[in-house]
Amino acid sequence: MRTASLDIVVTGLAAVSAAGVGLEPLALAVQEGRSCLRPLPAVDDPSLLWGIADGFRANDFMPPLKARKFDRCSLMAVAAAGMALRDAGIDPKTHNAERIGIVLGCGFGGIANSAEFLAGYFSAGVEGLAPMLFPNTVANAAASNASIEQGFKGPNITIVQRFSSAETALEIACRFLQEGRADVMITGGVDELTPLMIEGFRAAGQLKRFASGFGEGCGLLVLERRDAAALRGASTKGSIDDVRSLGLLLPGEEEEGLGRLLPQEITPCPISLSGTADLCPPLVQRLPESGRIELHRITGRSLAMGGLALVALFLTLREGEQGLHLAASPEGPYVAIQVRGGSPV
Amino acid sequence: MTGKRIAITGLGIFCGAGKDIPAFADALLGGKSGIAPLDLFDVSPFPAQIGAQVKDFDPLDHFARKTAARLSRADQFGVIAAGEALRSSGILGQAGPYDLGVVVGAGAAGMFQSEQWLKEHLAGRKGHPNLLRGILPDKTTTVIAETYRLGGYQGTITTACSSSATAIGWGADLVATGRLQGVVCGGADTLSLLTFAGFNSLKVVDPEPCAPFSLGRQGISLGEGAAFMVLEDAEAASRRGAQIHGYVLGYAAEGEAYHMTAPEPSGMAAARVMNSALRTAGVDPAEIGWVNAHGTGTPLNDVVESKAMKLVFGDRVGEVPLVSTKAVTGHCLGAAGAIEAVSTVIALGRGIIPRTLHFRGRDPECDLDYCHDGPRPGSSAIAMSNSFAFGGNITSVVFSR
Question: Is B210 a catalytic residue?
């Protein structure tokens, strides 16, 4: 499935990751190929490494009393949305807020609050319920809190779609811009990592598989139609040239599926592998060996890591240079996004 | 919404008010509520002990034992309702598997099972790993895709109570742009302790069956279920001789940017999304015959939605009934928008405006026509369905027969 004739540019980027807060630490870690993963004291196996965004402090972005009402996904999304809009040179207070929207991928968002809320009930019955926790048990809390705090009232959608959550979100954001539902779309992904989630991975037998090396963070992009960005004199970090997605690779019909997903010719270019794309042989066998960026080795794998991976790709591309971003999940979907570097990056 | 005209060629439902389309249509148009005492889990500590639970459900009536064991209750509901929609559309085998996709709007998903794992874990015991399999709502989407070999697209929208309305809008968009030939879209959600305790803790659950727009209403009645529709390019559907139940004309999904739980009180945000949906549908407010309300029965929501109606319809508001079908189905959270969308399409097709059940007296702040007196003939061909959610995620979808 292909979203054709895109003319969408990236005018802002933001990153919160195990590499640090902001674009520079992420760019540096990618450039150096340096892993930011480390063991967690809360996990008794030191051979397992995790990508914790421990450089992120909510109080750097908002007063402590306000920060207390948000879950960690929301905190990172609120902060990153502010950073991304500033990077794009957009102030929602002076821009038409109804024309700014957000479509965000969010993996396990809300689960930490759900667990804490239920734990109160299991330990103390109805008296143990904390109503303040309940609103942030929903996966859309991060996008909604970002819109409330930053004040944008356009389209607002949250996607949970395995390891392609952020890419699925980006596809919708592009469509909304094409259709004129908004002038500015913030998109990408956010994830948190908690000790209970790691216990859940262990119980589900995932620690030695996809969940090994899980990370957290938030990677956001500000997208605009090229003409609208040019009209306000914005500089571009790059462009989104093509988005293709596929739901499943059907047994016996993999060739046709991959033919629909991938461009006919994949020229040597930086290729960002997100989700579990690196573990999908029929996919990686079609790619050139060189120029692969595997962000999960640097900041950790997560369901919505595509946001950070796309930010990292744009930070890597030279002006006009083509790049390809591929995301996959073991059970699908698969997303291929062709991008191009902008100026100045 | 630009592009191809979108036909609805299949409908499916599985909920407390009816386990297939004929049974559900009887309940909806006959005014039979699915709200009854709950027994899915222990509700005795809570003041409200009722809801629209799917009763007498044995997964083995629908799935092999091994399959049932790896699916959450929400996955099972989703597969059943999506299956009914796909079968009734006849699209399987008519389009290639990579030309078909699935979009699901989901809420708590497999939380009903996962919270049992958490309880075991907190007690220092090992819960069965299967309890965690459906914790992410996209599992339902993947299971539907795998079951019916829909290879073209998987998407899961999680905007709380507006999830599945938005899923229908986005599904329509995927077909309108020619990216898919057909899509099954809708939503599935089930009752869970998390949501039941959560809404009780916010004190917005009515101990009696919910009474939308009625004097003395105290809040929602929770429910569960799944509903799906198959959408196709109308021309292609006609060419293959498919039965067309109606059309998706347009939708809007926006953010109030006001509060995580309270609706924007003036109704301007809700009016904005309704107007946006009408604009994308190319429909004038004068063409709308009635509105399927979000209509939860909470004191605040019903007043705000009534205010929004006045902003959208102006002097004509008295001629546009605002009907809540939640007194029939309960508030099915992630599945609510899809259940109400299917309700709207059924009612439009039969030329009947459904009734808002459980009238307790007239509220001076809810001064519109809510069809409290009973169902009535409706000649209009177009209706709108509203879904408003936590986080100010608001969606409206416009349907025609």
Answer: no
Determine phi and psi for B7, rounding to 5 degrees.
-95, 145
ipTM of the complex: 0.97
Grouping H, G, I as helix, E, B as strand and the rest as coil, residue A220 is: strand
Q: Do B138 and A141 touch (CB under 8 A)?
A: no
Using DSSP, state whether B260 is helix, strand or coil.
coil
| DSSP run (H or E) holding B338 | helix B336-350
* A positions 137-176 inside 8 Å of B (CB): 137-141, 143-145, 147-148, 151-162, 165, 168, 172, 175
Q: Report if pTM > 0.80.
A: yes
Mean pLDDT of chain B: 97
Q: What is the pLDDT of residues B250-291, one digit of tens each?
A: 999 999 999 999 999 999 999 999 999 999 999 999 999 999
B62 is annotated as an active-site residue: no
What residues of chain B lie within 8 A of the CB of A248, using their CB? 145-146, 149-151, 154
Question: Taking CB atoms and an 8 Å limit, are A137 and B151 in contact across chains?
Answer: no
B126: CB partners within 8 A, 6+ apart: A203, B120
> How far, CA to CA in Å, does A208 sit from each of A49, A60, A193, A282, B117?
11, 35, 16, 22, 21
Q: Is B185 among the residues known to form the active site?
A: no
Residue whose tokens read 């029939």 = B328
B150/chain A closest Cα distance in angstroms? 7
Contact between B210 and B296 under an 8 Å Cβ cutoff? The reply is yes
Q: Do A172 and B149 touch (CB under 8 A)?
A: no
CA distance B30 to chain A (A): 34
pLDDT in tens, B356-401: 999 999 999 999 999 999 999 998 999 999 999 999 999 999 999 9
* Cβ neighbours of residue B23 closer than 8 Å, sequence gap 6 or more: none
User: What region, left, alpha or beta, does residue A159 occupy, with left being phi > 0 and alpha being psi -120 to 50 degrees?
Assistant: beta
Provide the pLDDT for residue A46.
Answer: 83
Burial (CB < 10 A; 0-12, 13-18, 19+), residue A43, is middle
Q: Enumerate the residues of chain B whose CB falls inside 8 A of the CB of residue A165.
A: 138
CB A49 within 8 A of CB A38: yes
pLDDT of the residue at A44:
77
Q: What is the mean pLDDT of residues A281-288?
A: 93
Of A161-165, A211-215, A293-297, B59-63, the least confident? A211-215
For residue B280, give the chain A residue with the closest CA. A181
Asked if B262 is an interface residue toward chain A (Cβ–Cβ < 8 A), one would say no
Q: Choosing from B15, B185, B294, B366, which is the catalytic residue?
A: B294
